[in-house]
Amino acid sequence: MEILKGIPVSPGVYIGEAFLQHSEEVRIPHQFVEPEQVEAELRRFEDATRQVIEDIDKIRKQTEDQLGNSLGAILMVQTQLLKDESLRQKIIEKIRNERYSAEHAVATTLKIIAKRLAGLGDQMLAHRDSDIYDLQKRLLKVLVGAQHGGVGHLDKPVALIAHDLGPSQTASLDRTKVKAFAIDVGGRTSHTAILARAFEMPAVVGLESISTDISGGETIIIDGNRGIVILRPDERTLARYRKLQQEFQTFEQTLIKEKDLPAVTSDGREIRVHANIEFPDEVNSAVTHGAAGVGLFRTEFLYLTSGIMPDENVHFEAYQSCITRLGGRPLVIRSLDLGADKVISTHAFHERNPFLGLRSIRVSMKYPETFRTQVRAILRASALGKVRLMLPMITAIEELRWAKRIIDETKQELKRENQPFDAKIEVGIMIEVPSAALRATDLAKEADFFSIGTNDLTQYTLAVDRGNELVANLYSAANPAVLDLIFLTIEAARVAKIPVSMCGEMAGDPIFTSLLLGLGLTEISISPPSIPEIKKIIRNVSYEKCKQIAAHVRTLTDTPAILDYLRGRLGEDLPGGEKFGAV
Ligand code: PEP
Ligand code: MG
Asked: Which atom of ligand 1 is nearest to the CA of 453?
């Protein structure tokens, strides 16, 4: 038996057979062709291109029918790449001028492009990188006539294990057979992770070596709640997980039935539980899981999936779509948080430390026109429903002042144009950098609300990259230094009488619910599938007890002691819930 720890990206427990997808290295039959074969080779390339475009379009339509336009747009990027004239010409030139075989021309050209992107050192191009490799695989399969890696021919349910899964591969998985997946690479914001959540398929990513640790066919447990994968489990573990799986399913069914019950503690304190979304379509999932609104719309996914800067109307339509689906519930739109690991091809700076570099509000300040465009759309959308505007990664008050000035100027512009908007739209900030938490008192005087982004706050406080498996053991929002900053933020908001929420992953982790309530939070924003569970915990605790828990935690001085204590409390807060945390 072997236990691997990765990044949980989609909840649920799978027990069953592992199916290993090999890296699908396609053997290229020959590199060069005779001069008289060149025209035929060009035709082969054109035919393969047409077929791949048709294949992708088919998958895209299926995806759009099932999940909506935004997710289908992920695949649109690949079709656009394939139709890109300069890319096609590069391949054609290699066949015509250097007499490359179509396979060799495709493989070399796309590899060079992918490597160049990687060489820019810009982590956000990793998304485009995997699109290119995915496309390369598709073209080569058609050209070489290779079988589809076996996944298309499954005859029983399996968990798919692979080094990586490209977005089009994930979207085209036969979900009657592929019930879960676990891969070596990836992170929470990768296209693959987004699709896994949309499919509600248990998934763990970032396992480093799972594709080389198994040979396929063995029994595997994938625990998408905890990011645990167990290879060749022994009888005792299997029995434990079977029971856990059954209890988890029953528990989930009960939770879903209760999703619309209010999130009010046993002594009457009401907590607003909102949803984090990346696409307008996800509002449906937010509502069906019982969200009171959307507390974080990560708008950068509008850029990341289309590969082009959206114009004002693309922004506006996305926001309008959210507002319509929300049916009167509030919506917090965060301005673009590009940079670091979330990048697009036009942002091609080489940065040695991208998480400490040109990221988020800094990108907006460098490209104010892009920010103005988005602000115009947000303001116009504010005439249609309850909309708030949130600024990410504020590190100093000047940044907030700059953004507010642009927002004011944009309001004047819209006024001159007689365009309706909410003149009193609230402008809030994310507290996700220690400098902001330390200066929260000043910031609270000028921001209309706070939302604590613990994903970044933890990494910036502890100097631990949130995406680096090598230091993952050091990354914990339960570190007393992080908790101090959270406390400072909540206190500053309370004194200034402004609302404070938390939208980092910490807020969706059942272990922390009592603590966060005890620290004074009355609003959180979490991923839609976590909502029913967290709401149930809230109903099972009293605010008085949460305050005692928080007071006790603040006397503890090390992370393991804090985690142990909170884990112990979870059993009481969520009857049965401790079983899902105790792996
Ligand atoms: C955070 O940092 O906690 C957050 C919610 O923002 P993101 O995960 O998009 O960086
Ligand atoms: Mg963040």
From this structure: 3
Whose tokens are 């305050």? That residue is 547
Residue nearest to atom 3 of ligand 1 (CA): 453
- Residues at CB less than 6 angstroms from ligand 1: 298, 337, 432, 453-456, 503-504
Q: With contact defined as beta carbons under 8 Å apart, do 77 and 305 qualify?
A: yes
**Alpha carbons 193 and 71: distance in angstroms, whole number:** 12
Determine the Cα angle at 73 with ends 504 and 378, to 5°: 55
Q: How far is the CA of 454 from the centre of ligand 2 (A)?
A: 7
The torsion region of residue 463 among left (phi > 0), alpha (psi -120 to 50) and beta comes to left
Could you tell me the end-to-end alpha-carbon distance of the chain, in angstroms, rounded to an integer? Answer: 14
Report, as an integer, the average pLDDT of 403-413: 98
Residue in 370, 393, 262 with CA at minimum distance from that of residue 312: 370
Lowest mean pLDDT among 50-64, 94-108, 218-232, 381-395: 50-64
Closest CA to 181 of 199, 342, 189, 530: 199
Ligand positioned closest to the Cα atom of 188: 1
> What pLDDT, on the 0 to 100 scale, is given for residue 581?
45
This prediction has a pTM of 0.72
**Backbone Cα Rg of the chain:** 25
Which residues are within 5 Å of ligand 2 (an ion), measured at CB? Answer: 432, 453, 456
Distance 568 CA to ligand 2 centre (A): 29
Instruction: Kindly list the catalytic residues.
Output: 191, 503
What pLDDT shows up at residue 90?
93
Count the helices and strands in the chain (H runs, E runs). 24, 16
Q: Tens digits of per-residue pLDDT, 87-143?
A: 999 999 999 999 998 988 998 888 788 777 776 666 555 556 677 877 888 898 888
In three-state secondary structure terms, 279 is coil
For residues 387 and 321, the answer to whether their CB atoms sit within 8 Å is no
Enter the tokens of residue 158: 């399996």
**Cα distance between residue 563 and residue 554, in whole Å:** 12
